[in-house]
């Protein structure tokens, strides 16, 4: 029976445990997403400033959890105190009852002794023959009927008194036995309550220590926030310099793209001239079909990591948490450190720029995809941990060009991917072959 009851309890608690675990997992995932978001927002800023800000935000994020832990510990301490107080009240009541039982037993013993003494004297008198005369003796010895009636009533009263004394003695004996049994039970209860009181004192001490520890952790976090805020404010003096560096590096990238686009423009013009000349020659040959125009597939370009891609920070204007804006030329995608990144489309590696001296971008690859559908396309990949291609190398779509890293002014591994169309950066997630999934 006990085994069935225990199994029922475990089964009933399983859904609650599962829900709690699910909530904790979701909390972990949310914390991970928030960290990725902050890391992306701070891209390009001096790393020491990023670290100071992330450390400050991480500490701030721990405060609600620490406050909840303090409240929980204090509630458990209060519950332990209430239980100890209730146990003390029960103990006091039991001890009061025990004292009353002992007093009643003592009184009963004294009364029983007096009754016993009286009954003893009666027994000895009966043995000596000193008891009341018999009915016949009273009848013979009475001068009148009235004397006999009086004598008889007196004898009956004495008999009733003796019977009452005997009955009282028996009742007191039974009461004493019951009270002694109750005394034993109350003494056992008192010992159990004392044992429980000792255990509750120990529990209360443990709960108080836990509450004190949680409070100390909260105070330490609050103290850390003060120190980290001061550190962050001190490092913000480098913020403006970081913004200027970002603008300068962005301009440098734009100049590289412009040079590539110019090359593509010349190649396109040359190809168009060749096409016109071929068409003219074909026109002059009777019966020759005109060249068919090139068809461009919608899936000519793909993400540098396997789909569906998880966007941790979108393309577009970015607002820094502590002021200032800048254009985020690419999209940040979730990718673990060391994951292969591939060429998004066929093309030629126009530049491979190492992290040293490349500021925000870190290890950077430019791929010229030429003119597609009448537009010049260049893709840029930043923050790679290492290269797998070299400048001037032809690459095919899906070929590994490098591996995900966190080089440059960033604080976490991820993909930074840019698509330039005719010298202007566009949102890669607007391309039909990209499957968006927000992290």
User: Which blocks of ≥5 consecutive residues have pLDDT under 50?
Assistant: 1-14
Looking at the structure, what is the overall shape?
A: rod-shaped
Beginning-to-end CA distance, first to last residue: 50 Å
List SSEs in N-to-C order: HHHHHEEEEEEEEEEEEEE
* CATH fold naming of the largest domain: Helix Hairpins
What's the multimeric state?
single chain
Biggest sheet: strands, sense, closure? 9 strands, mixed
Question: What attributes characterize this protein structure?
Answer:
Peptidoglycan DD-metalloendopeptidase family protein; three-stranded antiparallel β-sheet; alpha+beta; M23ase_b-sheet_dom; disordered N terminus; rod-shaped; 439 residues; 2 domains; 61% helix; Dup_hybrid_motif; Helix Hairpins; Glucose Permease (Domain IIA)
Write the layout of secondary structure elements.
Layout: H1 2-41, H2 47-128, H3 135-141, H4 145-235, H5 239-284, E1 309-313, E2 316-319, E3 325-328, E4 331-333, E5 340-342, E6 347-353, E7 363-372, E8 375-384, E9 386-387, E10 394-395, E11 400-403, E12 415-421, E13 424-426, E14 436-438
Parallel strand pairs: 1-14
Antiparallel strand pairs: 1-4, 2-3, 4-12, 5-11, 6-7, 6-10, 7-8, 8-12, 9-11, 12-13
